[in-house]
Write a structure and sequence with these properties.
- One of its GO terms (cellular component) is cytoplasm.
- With 275 residues, this protein is of the alpha/beta class.
- The protein has two domains: 8-171, P-loop containing nucleotide triphosphate hydrolases (Rossmann fold); 201-268, no CATH class.
- Helices cover 43% and strands 12% of the residues.
- The protein has helices spanning 8-20, 42-45, 65-77, 93-107, 109-113, 133-141, 183-191, 202-216, 218-225, 231-236, 243-255, 267-274, and strands at 26-32, 53-58, 82-84, 121-127, 159-162, 167-171.
- α8 crosses α11 (243-255).
- The chain starts with 7 loop residues before the first helix and ends with a helix.
- The mean pLDDT is 91.
- Bound molecules: guanosine-5'-triphosphate and magnesium ion (MG).
- Residues 58-59, 61-62, 86-88, 127, 129-135, 148-150, 152-155, 173-174 line the site of guanosine-5'-triphosphate.
Length: 275
Amino acid sequence: MTGEWFPGHMAKTKRLLTEKKKEIDLALILLDARAPISSINQYLNEVFIDKPKIYLLNKTDLADPEITQLWLDYFRETNQQVLTINAAKGSGLRSVVKAAESTVLNSKKKYVNLGLKNIPVRSAIIGIPNVGKSTLLNRIMNKKSAVVQNKPGLTRNLLWYKVNDHFKILDTPGMLWPKFESPETGYKIALLNSIANYIYDPEKVVDFLLQTVSQYYPEKSQMYFNNCSSWIQFMEGHDVDDTAKKAEEIINDFRTLKYGKITLERPEEIINTED
Ligand SMILES: Nc1nc2c(ncn2[C@@H]2O[C@H](COP(=O)(O)OP(=O)(O)OP(=O)(O)O)[C@@H](O)[C@H]2O)c(=O)[nH]1
Ligand SMILES: [Mg+2]
């Protein structure tokens, strides 16, 4: 899964965003609260290096709330603006609009000081496929403007939406990057349903899931996986013909909360690798 793959439309999106950069005042970077660091697209962040950014941890209803709090602390301690939201339900959105406005007005202080009114706030929503960008946009617009579906790669165009006279939002296609840093990053992206399922090996993905659950959620590991921390170990106790299909089922059960709220990575992992 670390091999070569990168759909052409993603490279095109980066090029188009680079071209549109002058029209964008702020990047709203949507992350999946179940794996906030693995869902940061450094490849795309390069485009927005000199722009104000707000990180939004989405799908908080699916993540472990205690770990979400640790992630909020982590982002704040590293001086990055961050908010938690649940785009599907629409919670936390007022804070997003407010934060976007004040961040942009702050960055355009000289115009504000000149007494100019209705200074435009043009935010681009960016993030990996299926993280909830179009859902967030629809919620902010308060109507179904953009197409939403639980499958990666739905939005294919960059489109501006007008929230009010001075507030505009750009919906963008989900983007990944040409090569995952590590196989684990790929497994997490697969679990989040942000990559087409023919690209990954479900058994490797579940092997990673079992390892993670056994490390961070021993009670769940006991309850659902007989304390197995690997796919081979788990399969030893099961008589299954189609092991890939069984693995897909487990992935689906993870996504639909059958095992409860599981967060796949923790700030301590980063702090440990920085040492
Ligand atoms: N549980 C939960 N589901 C969410 C949340 N936000 C979005 N979703 C769901 O995630 C799926 C993908 O949402 P989209 O808004 O289409 O995602 P996108 O980022 O626009 O996806 P692409 O256009 O493919 O890049 C849909 O099934 C949404 O209902 C959330 O906060 N919680
Ligand atoms: Mg979309």
